[in-house]
Amino acid sequence: MKSILENRPALAKEVNKVAEVAGYLWQKGWAERNGGNITINITEFVDDEIREMEPISDVKAIGVTLPYLKGGYFYCKGTNKRMRDLARRPMENGSVIRILDDCASYVIIADEPIAPTSELPSHLSVHNDLLSKNSPYKASVHTHPIELIAMTHCRKFLEKDVATNLLWSMIPETKAFCPRGLGIIPYKLPSSVELAEATIKELQDYDVVMWEKHGVFAVDCDVMQAFDQIDVLNKSALIYIAAKNMGFEPDGMSQEQMKEMSVAFKLPK
Ligand code: 13P
Ligand code: ZN
Questions:
Q1: Which of 7, 36, 58, 105 lies at a CB distance of 3.0 to 4.6 Å from 143, suitable for a disulfide?
Q2: Strand 139-143 relative to strand 73-77: parallel, antiparallel, unpaired?
Q3: pTM for the full model?
Q4: Could you tell me the residue ranges of all domains in the chain?
């Protein structure tokens, strides 16, 4: 069977980036079983031949109406599929979907009828919001980073920007490479529309948001950059924990040092 990626190097490159990141998520221990999901907006790579491809699934409801997604195409990790498998075989552990004209349903078009991630309402709501703002962001990543999730089991870290400031203060790069910080979303049922709505709301101010006691959700121009933002935050959490394990509370960079960083790197906050 011919893959949708065949003779489409630009599209294949983006899907292969998803596979590369999926491998990192597994190596980091952030992707137990089927944990985590990735979607990318691939509409820009779609040609007439793809637009004419017959659906290979029934029409399925998204659960929300998303006007900016009309006629859009997304590569999505499959529900219940493992990141470690996706890393080696992205088109056997994910699929390409087409959003239908009602903006509330989709069909799978390639390569196999693999049902997309259960977090599709969150992912697609976020892509819809990004398109409504003409954002250059095309990728969304949800994963289960151990140390960041552990922090959400402590009430003080759930207060606005407490975790952000602590994580920024552990090493200068975290503020430079995750300049909008870490938003916090109080616990909501996984895959629910409520979680999707809270996610878009919080992403107005942050590129990475925490789903309390569950995982993070990040957006960026491509999947590699979304991964990098999560990775620098979790690195800071590891430094914090290392200091605590050595028996002391880390000093953290001072507010002045962090302000100096913002000026030098022209950071938004
Ligand atoms: P899926 O296998 O449906 O993508 O779910 C994994 C997950 O992390 C849910 O939050
Ligand atoms: Zn999850």
A1: 36
A2: unpaired
A3: 0.98
A4: 1-120, 145-268
CA distance 150 to 137: 28
Give the position, in ligand 1's atom list, of the atom nearest the Cα of 36. Answer: 8
Q: What is the pLDDT of residues 106-131, one digit of tens each?
A: 999 999 999 999 999 999 999 999 99
CATH number 3.40.225.10 given to 145-268: yes
User: Are 262 and 175 spatial neighbours (Cβ–Cβ below 8 Å)?
Assistant: yes
Q: Which residues on adjacent β-strands are paired with residue 210? A: 184, 216
| 1-120 has CATH 3.40.225.10 classification | yes
Interstrand relation of 182-185 and 139-143 (parallel, antiparallel or unpaired): unpaired
> Which active-site residues does the annotation give?
119
* Helices 9-27, 223-245: crossing angle, 10 deg rounding: 10
Query: Which atom of ligand 1 is found nearest the CA of 77?
Result: 4
Q: Note the pLDDT of residue 202.
A: 98
- From CA 29, how far away is CA 38, in angstroms rounded? 16
- Provide the residue type at 137 as one letter: Y
Check for a shared fold between 1-120 and 145-268: yes
94: β partners:
77
Q: Which residues line ligand 1 (CB under 6 A)?
A: 34-37, 77, 79-80, 117-119, 142, 190
pLDDT tens, 153-185?
Answer: 999 999 999 999 999 999 999 999 999 999 999
How far CA 27 is from CA of 20, 22, 32, 94, 145, in Å, comes to 11, 9, 10, 19, 11
